């Protein structure tokens, strides 16, 4: 064999090898693309949700995600929307269900369990769901608020307790929220049950009706449309013990004292705890867990008091001075057993509706 013949054979074999490799490369299966995380996280909330933009932006930067907030009305209305969308959720996470609606939310099987590592920092008294489907975020006291100027100008003492509200001098002065739709409205209904018992609360409400109580659907309408401090005609409203510092901080003209007072005597308030949960059916479970952890973290917990005027459940969070200076904390609140709420809430609301709205 000559060198020329050998080279020709070698060259042909090499070309054949290269061609075979090219064919193999073309026919090899294409590897599956690596799944990319969802760049959006949707958080469903009640209309009162608020947070500092820089705090949210820090979470978005850390986790390379954009957080979208879906405000869906007062908590009762928002929960109804979540129930209607069960199995195909409108969001990944739901924040705002409180202890007055907790049993309904859990009975509807809307949430996936998640034992956040931050739970070890949260007092057990706030952890009402042993399966960790709903995790506590904040608490506050639902109380009667009154317009200080109104009572000073009329020369009438503001009410001191629930019993005062059925007296003739307070006729037509009170606005409340519908407990079927509003969490503060339901909290106030439970306050009356805690004070007057299941045998006496409807009689009390009938007297409120005789004294011209006004019922609206949600807290925003009651406080910002009907309450006389904001241009309405009713100088007594169901709101929160933390409303006075909000009035000072957000006053258009600086004030030294809040224009509102709070009724706290004789168990006139009800403690409300708000929760967050991961909605069943989310396709963004990992990021939803990170958001829940974030809401329980010191960073978010310290942001809440001056945003939503609630107290953090994480005791490591520091309260701002502006918040503590004007907030009113009741010495004793109305108590209704959580199990009794779970078993009777719908019946109590139905009985209230028949007595008050007929």
Structural class, from helix and strand content?
alpha/beta
Indicate the radius of gyration in whole angstroms.
29 Å
The DSSP helix count reads: 13
The biggest sheet, with number of strands, parallel, antiparallel or mixed sense and barrel status, is: 11 strands, mixed
Proportion of residues in β-strands: 15-25%
Provide key terms for this protein:
D-Maltodextrin-Binding Protein, domain 2; alpha/beta; 2 domains; globular; disordered N terminus; eleven-stranded mixed sheet
Describe the structure.
The N terminus is likely disordered. Helix 2 links the parallel strand 1 and strand 2. This protein is of the alpha/beta class and about 350 residues long. It is about 40% helix and about 15% strand. The chain is built from 13 helices and eleven strands. Helix 6 crosses helix 13. Strands 1, 2, 3, 4, 5, 6, 7, 8, 9, 10 and 11 form an eleven-stranded mixed sheet that branches. The chain is globular and about 60 Å long.
């Amino acid at each position: 064999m000559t060198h020329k013949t050998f080279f020709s054979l070698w060259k042909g074999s090499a070309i054949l090898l290269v061609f075979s490799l090219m064919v193999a490369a073309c026919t090899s299966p294409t590897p599956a693309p690596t799944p990319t995380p969802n760049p959006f996280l949707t958080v469903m909330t009640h209309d009162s949700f608020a947070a500092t933009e820089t705090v949210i932006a820090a979470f978005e930067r850390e986790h390379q995600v954009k957080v979208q907030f879906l405000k869906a009305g007062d908590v009762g209305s928002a929960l109804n929307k979540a129930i209607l969308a069960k199995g195909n959720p409108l969001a990944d996470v739901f924040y705002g269900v409180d202890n007055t609606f907790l049993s309904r939310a859990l009975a509807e099987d809307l949430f996936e369990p998640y034992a956040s590592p931050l739970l070890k920092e949260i007092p057990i008294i706030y952890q009402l769901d042993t399966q960790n489907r709903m995790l506590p975020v904040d608490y506050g006291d639902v109380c009667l608020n009154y317009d200080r100027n109104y009572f000073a100008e009329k020369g009438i003492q503001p009410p001191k307790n629930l019993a005062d509200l059925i007296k003739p001098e307070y006729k037509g002065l009170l606005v409340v929220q519908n407990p079927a739709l509003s969490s503060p409205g339901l909290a106030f209904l439970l306050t009356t049950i805690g004070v007057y018992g299941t045998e006496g609360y409807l009689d009390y409400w009938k007297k409120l009706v005789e004294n011209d109580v006004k019922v609206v659907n949600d807290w925003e309408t009651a406080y910002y449309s009907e309450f006389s401090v904001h241009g309405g005609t009713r100088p007594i409203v169901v709101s929160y013990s933390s409303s006075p510092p909000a009035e000072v901080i957000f006053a258009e003209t600086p004030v030294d004292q809040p224009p509102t007072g709070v009724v706290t005597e004789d168990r006139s308030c009800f403690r409300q705890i708000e929760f967050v949960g991961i909605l069943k059916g989310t396709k963004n479970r990992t990021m939803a867990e990170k958001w829940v952890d974030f809401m329980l973290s010191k960073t978010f917990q310290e942001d809440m008091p001056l945003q939503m005027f609630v107290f953090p459940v994480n005791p490591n969070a520091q309260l701002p001075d502006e918040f503590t200076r004007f907030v009113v904390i009741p010495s004793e609140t109305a108590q209704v057993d959580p199990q009794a709420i779970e078993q009777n809430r719908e019946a109590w609301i139905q009985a209230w509706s028949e007595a008050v709205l007929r």
